[in-house]
């Protein structure tokens, strides 16, 4: 009887050889590059201590605690599973593998050989650990298993040969099953996941539901993906309500919070705080579900753009001339339905992405006047000016938020800052003779907002202005450190979510003024998001799509500079290395020289230059894997460059914005003799990781350029009735109640004006 092969659409246990490269299924997962970083190489003890330190620090924390604790547990599970799988494959015990001796001084030998039953138990343990890792975060677990030994990839299939009903082994083998590269949608059936979900109790079904939803995204089964993600979110919500703390637990949490505040005031070491137990640590599953469901909604909105715009201009022309017929009227009705889908799905995507970033904290920092005064004090003390007036030791700086300027000390004026800071002497800390006269500084606590507050109808009032991307001069070093106090909690998917919010607003036809404010705040968060020392800068498809939309839609928002420059982290001051002045001016001079030389080139030289630049860009594209993909990438770049040169793809009307984009492009392609400036940890290549336009970017750009703000033929909004002056209050109340409607709010927002 022929053995059933896996990799075919009907699914099985053993890999089926296919054309080309055959790799594990989990290596096809999206956003794998978002979870690369030093957490894969750091010792587990140091990684756990960093997670504990991140949890005990005041908000906003450097890294989201839920994803931090998840990667710590994933590292521990994968490392233990790798050790167990190696033990099982070699068939020797830990004593023989590590070379340790027993009581009589002998180690290894025949007595250290493991029995078959013991080997199977070890593999069962490894499978359970791997299943727990994939249940926490399958993307991070896939990255971790890629760094582990090759025996990890086979342990699930080996256990299934003896115990085919093992749910953990089936779940692990689903990720490690080998299929042809770049053909996941054709070689990934849903039957294994259906069996896993039906075999698990309801409270454990959320992770496999998430996995099945991601597989359906690969298969472009969008409706099924939404149903699975929604069901998983419902399960997580029910589990949270089920484990809602009672009154005793609330009192215990309040007491622990008071103890933590007392600990913060006493400045004790963070190691004195007891670590959280695994069951008490926050989980990131809800954030994963919100992010992925928002992406599905955004994809569905973009797919309806074509149906909403195809033939619209011809219909409007025929309608103006009175030449419409029944067929065209029916087509217009279909276009109106597609328009409702675009806005309806975009609204749902915006809701999910906003709920996702609401889990992360943002602070505008301490007001500049307070930090500048503190830095001035520290500077004076560092330069030997220890003789302080008696009034300065107990000086009170009051920034009450009024419109009038408040006095800061003697002879120093500062604007209102909305907070109160005390600069006073702490007698309990003045034991050292060297610092007995130093006015110890108590920094005021900065205001904390959820990151979603920056995209609300009213943004926080104390947002600082975005700093210029030019290097800071030497004489303003303390001002630079005093004013750069913004911070946001980092998540590997935060950058992609921010740019997806902007794409959703573009589909919702948000006014350019409001969308410009949202874009400015998205750039603000993107430039300060830093995953150091755990995660590296992640590639963002949504960011590349947003840059392409800005290019194709003619910068309809009126951005003052290129998006790469707006999102670039603030450069380090001159004193940090001396590179800023020399290299910053060198890039500007070189880019201007290149523009002058390009004006004198012939058409043949221009064509050759574009070809060479396209080849260089295509060679740096990770998606180029063979000759066919290389030729396709080169042709796409040549076509795009020629469109930009000839003005076929909406040439930029804003000359300042166009010059900024050109400077960024030339600075990235020209090899200059100056030394390149050091990059900050989270600074990426500004969207060049996905240089070829995607269908999503083309759909959003077309919607921005062609979609009218209102379409005739849709439902008309009911006009508001003005209340007659001096009318009967009873009749007015009765009329108001009669006008109430129980229609769904989502349907009301989707009506066409």
UniProtKB/TrEMBL annotation:
Residues 423-432, 695-705 have a biased composition (Basic and acidic residues). This is Histidine kinase group protein. Residues 714-724 have a biased composition (Basic residues). It comes from the Eukaryota. Residues 257-281, 400-439, 638-753 are annotated as: Disordered.
């Amino acid at each position: 009887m022929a053995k059933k092969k896996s990799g075919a659409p009907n699914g099985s246990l053993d890999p089926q050889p296919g054309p080309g490269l055959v790799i594990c299924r989990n290596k096809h997962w999206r956003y794998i590059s978002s979870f690369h970083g030093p957490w894969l190489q750091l010792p587990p003890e140091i990684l756990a201590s960093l997670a504990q330190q991140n949890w005990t620090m005041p908000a906003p924390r450097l890294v989201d605690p839920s994803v931090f604790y998840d990667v710590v547990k994933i590292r521990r599970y994968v490392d233990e599973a790798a050790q167990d799988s190696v033990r099982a494959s070699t068939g020797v015990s830990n004593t023989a593998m590590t070379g340790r001796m027993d009581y009589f001084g002998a180690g290894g030998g025949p007595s250290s050989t493991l029995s078959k039953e013991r080997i199977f138990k070890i593999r069962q343990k490894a499978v359970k650990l791997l299943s727990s890792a994939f249940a926490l975060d399958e993307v991070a677990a896939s990255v971790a298993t890629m760094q582990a030994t090759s025996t990890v990839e086979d342990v699930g299939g080996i256990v299934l040969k003896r115990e085919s009903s093992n749910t953990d082994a089936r779940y692990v083998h689903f990720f490690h099953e080998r299929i042809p590269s770049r053909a996941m949608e054709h070689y990934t059936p849903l039957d294994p996941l259906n069996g896993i979900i039906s075999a698990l109790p309801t409270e454990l079904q959320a992770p496999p539901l998430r996995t099945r939803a991601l597989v359906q995204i690969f298969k472009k089964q969008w409706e099924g993906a939404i149903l699975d993600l929604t069901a998983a979110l419902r399960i997580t919500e029910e589990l949270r309500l089920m484990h809602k703390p009672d009154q005793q637990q609330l009192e215990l949490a309040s007491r622990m919070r008071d103890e933590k505040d007392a600990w913060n005031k006493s400045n004790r070491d963070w190691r004195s705080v007891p670590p959280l137990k695994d069951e008490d640590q926050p989980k990131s599953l809800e954030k994963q579900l919100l992010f992925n469901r928002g992406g599905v909604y955004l994809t569905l909105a973009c797919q309806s753009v074509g149906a909403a715009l195809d033939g619209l201009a011809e219909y409007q022309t025929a309608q103006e001339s009175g030449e419409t017929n029944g067929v065209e009227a029916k087509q217009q009705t279909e276009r109106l339905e597609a328009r409702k889908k675009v806005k309806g799905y975009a609204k749902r995507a915006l809701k999910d992405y906003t709920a996702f970033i609401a889990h992360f904290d943002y602070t505008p920092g301490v007001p500049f006047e307070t930090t500048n005064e503190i830095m001035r004090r520290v500077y004076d003390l560092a330069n030997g000016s220890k003789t302080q007036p008696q009034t300065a030791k107990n000086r009170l700086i009051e920034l009450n938020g009024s419109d009038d300027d408040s006095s800061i000390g003697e002879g120093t004026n500062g604007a209102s800052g909305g907070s109160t800071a005390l600069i006073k002497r702490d007698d309990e800390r003045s034991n050292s003779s060297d610092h007995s006269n130093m006015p110890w500084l108590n920094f005021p606590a900065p205001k904390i907002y959820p990151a979603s507050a920056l995209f609300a109808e009213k943004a926080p009032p104390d947002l600082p202005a975005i700093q210029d991307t030019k290097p800071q001069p030497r004489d303003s070093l303390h001002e630079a450190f005093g004013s750069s106090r913004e911070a946001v909690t980092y998540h590997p998917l935060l950058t992609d979510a921010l740019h997806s919010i902007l794409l959703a607003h573009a589909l919702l036809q948000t006014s350019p003024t409001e969308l410009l404010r949202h874009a400015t705040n998205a750039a603000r968060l993107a430039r300060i998001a830093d995953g150091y020392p755990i995660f590296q800068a992640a590639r963002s498809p949504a960011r590349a799509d947003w840059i392409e939309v800005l290019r194709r839609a003619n910068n309809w928002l009126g951005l003052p500079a290129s998006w790469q420059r707006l999102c670039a982290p603030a450069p380090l001051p001159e004193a940090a290395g001396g590179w800023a002045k020399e290299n910053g001016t060198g890039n500007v001079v070189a880019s201007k020289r290149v523009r002058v030389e390009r004006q004198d080139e012939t058409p043949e030289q221009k064509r050759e230059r574009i070809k060479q630049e396209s080849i260089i860009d295509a060679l740096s594209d990770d998606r180029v894997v063979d000759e066919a993909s290389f030729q396709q990438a080169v042709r796409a770049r040549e076509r795009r460059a020629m469109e930009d040169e000839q003005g076929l793809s909406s040439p930029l009307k804003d000359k300042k914005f166009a010059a900024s984009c050109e400077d960024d492009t030339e600075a990235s392609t020209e090899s200059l003799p100056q030394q390149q400036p050091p990059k900050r940890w989270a600074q990426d290549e500004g969207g060049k990781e996905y240089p070829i336009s995607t269908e999503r970017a083309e759909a959003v750009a077309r919607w921005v350029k062609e979609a009218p703000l209102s379409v005739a033929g849709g439902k008309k909004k009911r006009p508001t009735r003005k209340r007659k002056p001096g009318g009967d209050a009873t009749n007015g109340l009765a009329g108001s109640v009669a006008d109430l409607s129980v229609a769904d709010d989502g349907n009301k927002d989707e009506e066409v004006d």
